[in-house]
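debug: dumping io for the single-chain case to check the tokenizer round-trip. Nothing else runs in this session.
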Amino acid sequence: NSRATAFMTKLFRSVRFNIFLGALITAAAALGTLVPQQAETPERTATFQAAHPQWSRVFDFFSLFDLYRSYWFMGLLGLMAFNIVLCKLWSLPPDDDLVGLPPENTRGESEAEKHLAKKEAALKFNPHQGAFASGLAYEPALAQAKKVLAGAGYELRDDFFLPGGAAFVATKHRLQRWGSYLAHIGLVTILVGALVKGIYGFVEMVPVIEGRSGVMQNKPGWEIFVDKFSIAYYDTQAPKSFSSAIRVESQGKTLARKTIIVNDPLDIGGVRFYQASWGASGMFRSVTLKLGKQELILSPRVPRKLPGTPFLVEADLLMPDFTITDGAPDTASLELHNPAVRLSFRMGPRTTRPIWLFQNDPGLCLVEEGNGGLARAPNPPFHLAGVDPILFSGIQVAYDPGFKVVLAGSLLWLLGMIGLFYLHRRRLWVLIEPAGDGSRLSLGGWS
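debug: decoded output
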């Protein structure tokens, strides 16, 4: 037991082990940016799981789809904080005014003589040193030296006497020794804040169709309504901006409402609602067909007579980004890159096989065959002129109770770095000895 205790103590107080933990946490965090996270990108997670079922089982076992809240990742953060406390914060920063010297420089017959010899050696062996003569007598020279250094902001301490003279220490910017200490306190505080977030915080994505509502998982009873979703496009048809007019209700009571855009969330008691994404739901309000100079507007699943024919036409399905997967119609994404609408025709009791028309390619028409496949079909005497899709808004909801803790830790770390790199501690040894009618001053210093 004593050997195990000694080994664990040595391990946890090892800077090498601290560096190893830091590298391990960095690698894990990097992995979390590569593996889709269920709370933030559920659609990417579902796509990955469908495409890689075997890897998904391994990832699920190690909680890689929820890496930042996994027990092993939070355990690493806690272990890092514990290791920093033992390595850096277990005792206060040293404040020695003497530089350690080899034993041969402190020889003497008694402890007092050794101490005296060590102080003399600290002055004489220091690489930064100088000496000069003064016309002042010994005591006035000592008083004047102290006055000059005190006026320059030096703190005078540790007076001691040598044979035939006196010496003292002058030090400046002693706070620098606290810089690293304070920075490490900041790091521990940041790690504690991350643990608080991992245990008590949450992130979830709530897709809400315009005009409808979505229920939160982490706040039972809270419901998000998207009353209006707006999107603007560049001339290239790339999305320029998008926003959602949302309101949050609980048990029929409105908690708050706001039109949110990217980087301008709604905040309710620390629970923030971000405008994160958008997409086409696969539903539509209307479809416009162009027949020569005439336009025919179709509502979903409502048959209308095709002018000049005995047929009724009905639109029932929208693919926002049409593609073909295993021979069947599919959508490559939820954005309107290649919108296609499925139409069917009816005459009396008979219904034709459905066809697909494309807004971006009016000359293309595909027909669904009996086996579920697709085949090229002759172009009908009309084309798809427009679609009014029903969009959904991706609302990311985040609660981070550790935010203020992390912010405080970051400020402590910043103050520590400022103290460490901008407050340069300087120490001077001043030895004053009588020299005839005047005195001789010897100085040794280090920074």
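debug: round-trip ok. The first strand starts at residue 128 and ends at 134.
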